[in-house]
Write a structure and sequence with these properties.
The chain is of the alpha/beta class and 331 residues long. It contains twelve helices and nine strands. The chain has a five-stranded parallel beta sheet, with helices on both faces. The chain has a four-stranded parallel beta sheet with strand order 7-6-8-9, sandwiched between helices. The two termini are 15 Å apart.
Length: 331
């Protein structure tokens, strides 16, 4: 089954300067004001049934990261919360050392952004100098070899911010679900379909994608048991289908088609499958006397994903679209 729920750790940060509190540029009060404004805006406008934001208010009175010594505590907290990504929010010039370290320790997708400077001295001095800090942080992330997404230095109400954050949320959903997929493979590739050949070892080594085979003999055995032991329920299901679909199929054929629904649900549960890739011809007709095409449609309505003709590559593309839309794309 698909999981569209994501958790994003918010990492507001500021510059650390030892000694007396600054009164001009890098005055922490302005960074704290930025932090409060940004975090409140994000939590109010982007929290939803499938999206949760985890802040670091536990860390100190400011709820901000400003020293590399704090990274271990923040990383531990985020791992306990099982976050799927972090959003580094530059509230003034920031701290590139701490930002790079937290990105490295978390090992999840990273988004970088900071709000535009809004308060200036008469001589043009900026109190926060956010954009310059973004240059430094992005360079440090590159040095650590950390892939990251970036939203241009803009106001939080700007369209660029909205587009950037929503795109990142989609990426987080894709990354979370793509790695370590379990794909149940029923049967083998159909002989003429060279276009759907895959490298199973490469999928495992590069992405942790596990192909779980169910051979056709085992599949037919399960189908026959379901058909013989649940015939009364299958007849009821077939009658219900007749009310919804104009069909000229025989009752026996419809009942066998409905048996596929229970079969795929069973192997999905037994194998903790993310998705099911199945042969649909010619073995199914020869061995069981029906095809699973109708069952695939019914299962899709129930939230399962199944792909006929053993097209695992095509299935990955469907998953990309589903996760990119965080479940709102109607496949």
């Amino acid at each position: 089954m698909l999981d569209y729920k994501i958790k994003i750790g918010l990492v507001p940060e500021r510059r650390f300067l030892p000694g007396p509190k600054r009164t001009g540029i890098f005055n922490p009060d302005y960074a704290v004001a930025n932090k409060k404004m940004v975090v409140e805006f994000i939590e109010k406008n982007y929290t939803g049934d499938n999206t949760e934001f985890i802040n670091i208010d536990f860390l100190n009175d400011e709820g901000m990261l400003y020293h590399i010594d704090q990274c271990e505590e923040v990383a531990k907290y985020f791992k306990e919360k099982d976050i799927d990504a972090i959003f580094i929010i530059n509230c003034n010039f920031g701290n590139e050392e701490a930002a790079g370290k937290i990105g490295q320790m978390i090992g999840k997708p990273v988004l970088l952004w900071g709000p535009r400077d809004t308060i200036f001295c008469e001589d043009g001095t900026r109190y926060t100098d956010t954009q310059c800090g973004l240059f430094s942080i992005s360079k440090q992330l590159k040095r650590y070899g950390i892939p990251f997404s970036y939203i241009e230095n803009c106001n939080i109400e700007d369209k660029a911010f909205d587009i950037g954050l929503r795109q990142f949320m989609s990426v987080v959903c894709m990354v979370k679900n793509f790695y370590n997929l379990r794909i149940v493979q029923v049967g083998t590739r159909v002989k003429p379909f060279k276009s759907v050949m895959i490298n199973e070892m490469e999928l495992m080594e590069k992405f942790g994608i596990d192909i779980v085979p169910v051979n056709m003999a085992e599949a037919v055995d399960k189908l026959n048991k379901i058909y013989n032991e649940n015939i009364e329920q299958l007849r009821l299901d077939a009658e219900e289908i007749k009310k919804r679909i104009d069909t000229s199929s025989s009752d026996e054929l419809l009942e066998k088609m409905m048996a596929f629904v229970y079969f795929y649900q069973q192997i999905d549960k037994e194998n903790q499958a993310s998705i099911i890739s199945t042969e649909c011809w010619t073995s199914m007709q020869l061995a069981f006397g029906a095809m699973p095409c109708l069952a695939m449609s019914i299962l899709a309505d129930l939230g399962y994903l199944g792909k006929r003709l053993y097209s695992i590559s095509a299935y990955r593309n469907v998953l990309y679209r589903l996760y990119r839309s965080t479940g709102q794309y109607d496949v």
